[in-house]
Amino acid sequence: MKPVYFDNAATTELRDEVVNEITKVLKTNFGNASSSHSFGRSSKSLIEKSRKAIASCLNVSASEIIFTSGGTEADNLILNSAVRDLEVKHIITSRIEHHAVLHTVEALQNGFNIEVSYINLDTNGNLDFEHLESLLQTNKKTLVSLMHINNEIGNITDIKRVANLCKANNAFFHSDTVQSVGHYNLDLQDIKVDFITAAGHKFHGPKGVGFAFIRKNVGYVKPLIFGGEQERGLRAGTESVHNIAGLELALTLMKENAEKEHAYIKGLKLYFIDEISKALPGVTFNGLSGDLEKSAYTIINVCLPFVSNKLDMILFQLDLKGIACSKGSACQSGSNKKSHVLLEILSPDALEKPSLRFSFSIFNTKEEIDYVISVLKEFA
Ligand SMILES: Cc1ncc(COP(=O)(O)O)c(C=O)c1O
């Protein structure tokens, strides 16, 4: 059995077309996009073509897309400028956001003395919308930051509803859409969010490139990284032309193939749920990940009906047998800390059991799922 990769929420394999495009651009468009000669102009025009295509996928203007080094930088840019430039004094968020948001908000709280409120959640990670409404009743300039799709448990937030609440209460709305751009159709004329973020490597594009969407009328935003005039002065540094072109092609291919690929991957997730439920009675699914309508079609977070001290052994054995899934759901990769998301929502009993996140892509098969479940069964 060749290695099985079920960690697509961490990062995805590049499509061949994207690798070919990146290679071609590296060879033929090596000019610095800030140079005025023909080499520079050709790189610049490729960047602008990519920006236009990305903007069109989101139904926004090209000038509202700012390229960054990825999701983390885009989240940092938006949260920092909201406080520094847009005079936000209060941030409403949730304790199950990605650390790119949570740690940035903590730093802003300490550095700028802003008020931070966390929305109540239930044991499935559902947001309490009434609580959000009550938190929005304030005279302080407020920013709401809530992710669209949770990277650990796959919960989908109704960001259109959040956006409408924010509009009605004069608050800014930032959504970390790193797990949803490329996977879901986001029409930003319909969803009145002020800021979103994306990373190429989550949808079969390259690493080290992403973007922030900043709505035109939000106010004057200043850069996080100072230097040259790239990205209209909002993000200095020579542009990574091949990565930008690769990201754009990856996004375009996601859009072109959405119908067929969603159905295929959703079928894999359903198969995984059915088969593991038969093989391991007592298995449960964390957050809303077991609900095909309310969670991402790519993510399942499984709470195994075993005693807790088996977790390390399971992870070791899975890795030994060539299976990659995320220990990030039970403990952060590379450390023994428990997941802040599971700690926030699970009961002490459920926290005692080993939890694993499996995340799927078009490159996975049902045979791989059969193999993984047969290995997991050995621990029952
Ligand atoms: C929801 C979410 N936000 C932000 C990030 C950070 O993105 P990047 O790795 O491109 O910095 C990730 C990546 O895991 C993510 O899943």
Question: Which secondary structure elements does this structure contain, and how are they paired or packed?
Answer:
Layout: E1 4-5, H1 16-28, H2 38-58, E2 65-68, H3 71-84, E3 90-93, H4 99-112, E4 115-118, H5 129-135, E5 142-145, H6 159-168, E6 172-176, E7 195-199, E8 210-214, H7 241-256, H8 258-279, E9 284-285, E10 299-303, H9 311-320, E11 323-324, H10 340-345, H11 348-352, E12 355-359, H12 366-377
Parallel strand pairs: 1-11, 3-4, 3-5, 5-6, 6-7
Antiparallel strand pairs: 2-8, 7-8, 9-10, 10-12
Residues 70-72, 98, 100, 147, 151, 176, 178-179, 199, 210 line the site of pyridoxal-5'-phosphate (PLP).
What does this structure look like?
The structure is a single chain. The chain has about 375 residues and is α/β, with parallel strands linked by helices. The chain has two domains: about 5-10 and about 255-375, Aspartate Aminotransferase, domain 1 (Alpha-Beta Complex), CATH 3.90.1150.10; about 15-255, Type I PLP-dependent aspartate aminotransferase-like (Major domain) (Aspartate Aminotransferase, domain 2, 3-Layer(aba) Sandwich). The chain is built from twelve helices and twelve strands. Strand 5, helix 6 and strand 6 form a beta-alpha-beta unit. Helix 2 runs parallel beside helix 7 (about 240-255), helix 3 (about 70-85) packs parallel to helix 4 (about 100-110) and helix 8 packs parallel to helix 12. The two termini are about 20 Å apart. The model has no long low-confidence stretch (mean pLDDT about 95). It binds pyridoxal-5'-phosphate. Pyridoxal-5'-phosphate (PLP) binds next to helix 3.
